[in-house]
Write a structure and sequence with these properties.
Length: about 260
């Protein structure tokens, strides 16, 4: 093994376990990688008044970093959704895609001799996406963009089973305030981007106009030392009402993944 390869492996290990230099306190990192499949419901009245229903996939990569001496932790989510759906007649279809990145800080409390962990805080969620209607010749696509501040709570409970400790984890993200992009009723993208006609297209949102809920329930079982196999339900309910238009993308996913502690 040459020196360059050794240095690269050492650097990867250094980054993965989260140690800090100069003898500072190490950082404990838990990483999640999950892939899921399930139902998606789509409505976007800018494209059509019709509702669409189909299936899609989600890829969720998360991490949580914390120091042993601190009650604060840093949470990050990167989530990709892709779906195809049809209307009630089955003649028309839509394609939906979105990427969301969330970053936040949580405070934790340990209860029941450490078997129950409660966390509360907030995340900033940024999302980009699209909805494409394959039947529309005029305005066939809708862009999606938004930024939200979301209060967040997590409850984690561990209990012994077959000489191992099983993890139950529930995370809930609720809407509070934010901003979102939305064309106005009857306004075309040509008017917005070619003619530069701004018409209240960046709108402030609240939990009333953009009731964006996200919940994730997981059960995980150790399969090797610091590695766990997880099975979970991810419900992501993205909704927006602005400029006399309504939009929702409601996804339900059964997720399978790996959790690893560093």
């Amino acid at each position: 093994m040459n020196n360059k390869l050794r240095c690269l492996i050492a650097l990867c290990w250094f980054l993965s376990v989260g140690h800090t230099a100069n003898g500072q306190e190490p950082v404990h990192v838990t990483r999640y990688l999950q892939v899921g499949y399930g139902e998606t419901n789509i409505l976007d009245t800018y494209l059509t008044q019709e509702k669409f229903k189909g299936d899609g996939i989600s890829i969720l990569v998360s991490s949580e970093r914390k120091k042993p001496s601190s009650d604060w932790s840093t949470l990050m989510h990167s989530q990709l959704n892709l779906s195809t759906a049809k209307d009630r007649s089955g003649d028309k279809s839509e394609v939906e895609g979105a990427f969301n990145f969330a970053w936040g800080r949580l405070y934790r409390w340990q209860k029941l001799n450490g078997s129950l962990t409660l966390q509360a805080g907030g995340v900033v969620n940024a999302g980009l996406g699209f909805i494409y209607n394959t039947s529309n010749s005029n305005n066939p696509a809708q862009a999606r963009a938004g930024l939200q501040l979301m209060p967040t709570g997590i409850a984690s409970y561990t209990f012994p089973l077959w000489k191992r400790f099983v993890l139950l984890r529930y995370e809930l993200n609720l809407p509070l305030v934010g901003v979102a992009f939305s064309p106005n009723y009857g306004q075309s993208y040509y008017e917005m981007f070619s003619l530069g006609n701004y018409d209240h297209n960046i709108v402030p949102t609240t939990f009333v106009s953009a009731p964006y809920f996200r919940q994730h329930f997981m059960v995980a079982y150790p399969i090797y030392r610091t590695t766990m196999l997880s099975l979970s339900y991810l419900g992501d309910y993205q909704q927006l009402q602005a400029n006399h238009l309504k939009q929702h993308v409601l996804s339900h996913r059964i997720m399978l993944g790996i959790i690893k502690d560093f």
